[in-house]
Amino acid sequence: TAMASDEPKAKKLKLSEDEKTNSNSLFGMGNPLLDICAVVDKDFLDKYSLKPNDQILAEDKHKALFDELVKKFKVEYHAGGATQNSIKIAQWMIQEPHKVGTFFGCIGKDKFGEILKQKAEEAHVDAHYYEQDQEPTGTCAACITGDNRSLVANLAAANCYKKEKHLDLEENWELVEKAKVYYIAGFFLTVSLESILKVAKHASEKNKLFCMNLSAPFICQFFKDNLMQVMPYIDVLFGNESEAAAFAKEQDFETEDIKEIAKKAQALPKVNTKRQRIVVFTQGKDETIMALSFLSGLVQEKPLDQCVRAAHYSANVIIRRAGCTFPEKPDFK
User: Domain Carbohydrate kinase PfkB: where (predicted)?
Assistant: First the structure.
């Protein structure tokens, strides 16, 4: 969304000590992947039957894709994974203090795993990885053609996250309890539903904010049972237009109108009734749709508006750069 430059600047409020953003107040859990990015040609997409703009999980037929990508094209490596990227961007927008964002996920004991650890540290994110040696660190091939990018994720180690091996450990669960806001991408529904539910139930019981992203049409289609087990705990639901459409179809909403879909998703059953669900659907360059019940709209209108502006700003910065990378400091007022 184009933002008018003569918008009134939001007043900076002086926060009292206990209102300042504390370390570990944002918690994310997901699939830590190393992105392998390259500009490819249509033949390459066709060979592996990839749509120009999509997100899929690698199948057997894609195994050779990763080697071919590296051999045939000029590749760049970037720390990735949808949730980890979101936590990094939030940390970048906040700047100080460091380690506001916590991230949990599973990696291998290998070179790619070391890169992810180093990159998380450089981004001042407090990453606590479950490290195992059965599987190598996960990768995601980002196959770019023109303005489109087709993502093929080989989860590998990311798929090995275990609640009892990591999340349940006392020192890790303490970090979960420290958080005020939780964000998990729908992609993690394919890995550890029990981990998501444990975090979601904690947020709900303590009246903290639990946020989830639909992430991809295939999540709405093939993991809808898992998604709907978590839905009653979701305070903020994110998605884009194609995910919203897939979700509506799977839920028999009988509408293709994105505003109607947002309203119906907003009204789905919810455990913590102290918070009304907010639904946020992005549409690329088109307007962002936000659905909230009338009462919470009155109470939260201003801060939410600013949240959307901040999101548009950071997306605008990152879309111009390779991988999920950003300048040293944000220029957002």
Answer: 45-290
Domain locations along the chain: 26-33+81-136+156-319
One-letter amino acid identity for 29?
A: M
Instruction: Specify the residue for token string 């390779």.
Output: 322
Which residues face 149 on adjacent strands? 144
> Which residue's structure tokens are 């990015």?
37
Starting at the earlier edge strand, list the strands of the sheet with 209-213: 126-132, 101-108, 26-29, 181-185, 209-213, 236-240, 278-283, 286-291
| Fold that domain 26-33+81-136+156-319 belongs to in CATH | UDP-N-acetylmuramoyl-L-alanine:D-glutamate ligase (3.40.1190)
Query: Looking at residue 234, what is its pLDDT?
Result: 98
* Alpha-carbon distance values, 24 to 14, 72, 100, 163 (Å): 21, 42, 5, 19
pLDDT tens digits, residue range 99-134?
Answer: 999 999 999 999 999 999 999 999 999 999 999 999
Q: Which helix (H) or strand (E) holds 82?
A: helix 82-94
Q: What is the pLDDT of residues 44-94, one digit of tens each?
A: 999 999 999 999 999 999 999 999 999 999 999 999 999 999 999 999 999
First to last CA, the chain: 16
Q: Which positions of the chain have pLDDT values less than 70?
A: 1-20, 294-302
